[in-house]
Amino acid sequence: MNALYLVHEVIKKFVGEGSICIDATAGRGYDTAYLCSLAGKSGKTIAFDVQEEAINSTRKLLDERGLCAELVLGSHEHMADYADEETVDCIVFNLGYLPKGNHAIYTHFDSTKKAIEAGLKLLKRGGLMCVSIYYGGDSGYEEKDALLPYLKGLDDEKYQVIASFFYNWKKDPPIPVFIIKN
């Protein structure tokens, strides 16, 4: 098992035909494609990335698989401009840098926090937000160290926050965090 498998297993319990989903960090498009396949033709998926390379990679993967999503070249902190409050079933974040991309370009706590705050307003009651924190190497420690306490401090009357740790893995394993809106 790895973080991607765990996240996808949880997501499929929350997303089905007709769902509205957001991939806050499109990357290479794998989560976008997964969300599209679960939401089906009557659903909608919106994917964000600040890197044109990521948007192009995602578009190519979707085309190969015959899937469709709205792709936005821009920051995930503006997701509220693309969906209404309490309409979204699932929001997915993969923090860090673009796989096989420029490691000098990576997510930062300030914009991630704004995006999470916007996303929590967009989520339906019973909706899911997955925040996978990739850190280590040359980036991500500062974001992880700021993000975990922030998520722990979310109002427990409004949200359940479940952090998953691969405790015995070496070399900074990803930390999948699941937020369910009560």
Fold and architecture overview:
The protein has 182 residues and is of the alpha/beta class. Helices cover 32% and strands 25% of the residues. It has 5 helices and 7 strands; from the N terminus they run αβαβαββαβαββ. A 7-stranded mixed β-sheet has the order 3-2-1-4-5-7-6, sandwiched between helices. The longest helix has 14 residues. It starts with a helix and ends with a strand. The mean pLDDT is 95.
**Structural class assignment:** alpha/beta
Shape: globular
Strand content: 15-25%
Order of helices and strands: HEHEHEEHEHEE
Give the strand order, joined by hyphens, for the main sheet: 3-2-1-4-5-7-6
Terminal CA distance reads 28 Å
Beta strands, count: 7
Give the overall pLDDT as a whole number. Answer: 95
Main sheet: strands, sense, barrel = 7 strands, mixed
Cα Rg: 15 Å
- As a percent range, the share of helical residues equals 25-40%
Note the total helix count. Answer: 5
Q: Regions with pLDDT < 50 over 5+ consecutive residues?
A: none
Topology:
Blueprint: H1 3-11, E1 20-23, H2 30-39, E2 44-49, H3 52-65, E3 70-73, E4 88-95, H4 109-122, E5 123-133, H5 141-152, E6 159-163, E7 175-181
Parallel strand pairs: 1-2, 1-4, 2-3, 4-5
Antiparallel strand pairs: 5-7, 6-7
